[in-house]
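Problem: given the chain below (222 residues), write out its structure.
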Amino acid sequence: MKHKIYETYDEYLKHQGSKINEEKYLLRRLSKWTTRVENFQKKFKLLQLLHIIEPNSRILCLAARLGEEVKAFRNLGYDAIGIDINPGDPQLLKMFHLPKELETKDRYVIYGDFHKIPFPDNEFDYCFSNSIDHSLYVEKLSSEMYRVLKDKGRAVLEVVKHWKEFEVFAWEDTSELITLFEKFGQWGKVSLENRIEIVLDNPRQYLILDKEVPTVNENSSD
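Solution.
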């Protein structure tokens, strides 16, 4: 694995938070917001069919940027909220023709650092993120997900190998991630799900972190 070095944690936060402020990046995300929501919904429906994520659950999306994954989960009936160190100017939401959301609790994404999640213990059924490669302290992230999950909770992490300007750590093979999270010694079970990659022909795999060892029925695919 390789890691990006920052002199201070403030430098890391400033750099990671600046991505959404880049004009080209922001315009691209704005133009594809609805399409990204639809793509997330397709993947989440498959996660349902595979019993990786069960219906009627409360879900926390980590590093959710403009909240496309949160919107997708809500469209499917989930109680979902996202956090990000730069959730964007609320005025941007009006450009998506989203409902007027005046209270923080009704926003798709609120401010929050996934190394110090601003929610109490045992709050969520699932944590979801496609941005763990942006984590500076992966073990701290792991501990925070474990803390906010309920006793039978599960973290579902979409993983793909990138190494660009904003990625903080990278791996050669996803098996390294299994070894890494097992080494932390917190999770009841660490596994990798690649059936969605095959069905959607999309180079995404899912690292599954179970707070407790699941029973056969809890992780079956009928």
